């Protein structure tokens, strides 16, 4: 069996607010890559719930956070379709992402 590792390093200020975030992915050739935000979800099958870590730095611009969340919504639809094969639900999630883009002023009508 082969193992790999993905790590996230977070520097916090005196109020425990992220100052900087870097990540590493051995197999992806990523080393100490800076990022302004990360959202991680893991599934706990014992409690049957998603556990999340959502972090962003003070310098993360609001317009970029909106785009980040929009892209996550789009990817959720893609992941759902691949995992379940339910095209109709995946399309519905894509519509939600489109509506979010309009309501958050990422894209106009």
UniProtKB/TrEMBL annotation:
A Pfam family annotated for this UniProt entry: GldC-like
This protein's name: Protein involved in gliding motility GldC
Organism of this sequence: Chryseobacterium oleae
């Amino acid at each position: 069996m082969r193992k790999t590792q993905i790590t996230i390093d977070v520097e916090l200020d005196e109020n425990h607010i992220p100052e900087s975030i870097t990540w590493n992915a051995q197999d992806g050739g990523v080393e100490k890559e800076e990022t302004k935000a990360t959202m991680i979800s893991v599934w706990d099958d014992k409690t049957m719930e998603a556990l999340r870590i959502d972090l962003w730095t003070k310098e993360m611009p609001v317009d970029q956070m909106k785009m980040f969340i929009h892209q996550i919504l789009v990817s959720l639809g893609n992941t759902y379709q691949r995992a379940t094969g339910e095209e109709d639900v995946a399309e519905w999630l894509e519509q939600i992402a489109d509506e979010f883009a309009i309501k958050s002023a990422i894209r106009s009508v």
